[in-house]
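Problem statement: downstream parser choked on a complex file, so we are re-checking the raw output for the pyridoxal-5'-phosphate run. The parser issue turned out to be on our end (a line-ending mismatch), but while we're here, posting the original submission so the record is complete.
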Amino acid sequence: MDHFLYRDGQLYAEDVPVAEIAAQVGTPFYCYSSATLTRHFRLFDEALEGTEHLVCYAMKAASNQAILKTLAGLGAGMDVVSGGEYARAKAAGVPGERIVFSGVGKTRDEMRVALEGGIRQFNVESEPEMAALNAVALELGVKAPIAVRVNPDVDAKTHAKIATGKSENKFGIPITRAKEVYAEAAAMPGLDVVGIDVHIGSQLTELEPFRLAYEKVAELTEALRAEGHDIRRLDLGGGLGIPYTRSNEAPPLPTDYGQLIKDTLGHLGCEIEIEPGRLVVGNAGILVSRVVYVKSGEGRDFLILDAAMNDLIRPAMYDAHHDIVPLTQPAPAAEQAPYDIVGPVCESGDTFAKGRMMPELAEGDLVAFRSAGAYGAVMSSEYNTRPLIPEVLVHGHQFAVIRQRPTFDEIINRDTIPEWL
Ligand SMILES: *Cc1c(COP(=O)(O)O)cnc(C)c1O
């Protein structure tokens, strides 16, 4: 459920007509709903009620500081995967003790900054990384709290590019080697082993892979405790999927996911961390675009939009489907025709949908891509020297631009031309 609904034939974001934002901000732009963000965060928080827990929003899904601040105000922690994200979380006012640091390639500089600025835990993904973190912590005279990310070799049954829990993926250490690696960690004086971390992939539409992974984590917790490790925290990653189409079967709900966590791990008395990203922000954002031309091709018609693959890369990168709807609600009996919906970038891959049935649209009409809040703005680029598009946050009757569209001068002036040229 989100807060982008038609009222009197116009698409609204909460209490603001989206067309009104378009008139002020210009297209294309991303638009987020605070109420939807809040609702989705709370679903996770409530799903773990009765269990000591922290919901660490995976901010790589959408990392605008206004979004981070909205969530931090609700009690969210953050899952960061780079020094840049760490700095962003801190800038948005998130205290270090609510930040977990994930990622396979943390550099020593990133480790240093996080240890100095405060960190809840590092999720370490390899033995060389463990050794580096130990060295950095000793240099600084501190102990780095760690969980080791284990790879449970579970098939997440999602798109190959976002599956992370199979043995062939680069993530974590094989769960079969966990005892050895934990023994090594315990022997490193710069590390404080606090828990276990697992994250098997993104856009999971079934609970079963989570169950398989969490059962393995439960077993491992007991095995490691038997070896004397004080496992007191379990970081269970993110990955719960969202419905990208209205018609498809709905993925499991956060309450059922929470229940699964309690069923598989509740008896261990550990503090639970989860790292949802997509489900918190995915349906809380839309991408608004204008039809530049309607072009008749051979055997097909193209809707050429002013948004392109550089603004929303998911269709090109993951063959992802986004519902695309006109801002003006079509009449219930309106005729539909198939369109290839494309952007202006000079690549055939700049295609959002092929043969998509749409009501009749004309030059200048506005459309919204639904479920574009996660892995949308954050994955955008300035390819073709197209400026990064604005982000807008709506809250009830109010809206604000939370990232400005840069001018061409700002973009161009980032280059420097050597004096010898
Ligand atoms: C990407 C990622 C997440 C978030 O995944 P979602 O599918 O967006 O919920 C959580 N944890 C880690 C380690 C990740 O890499």
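For whoever reads this later: The two ends are 56 Å apart (CA to CA).
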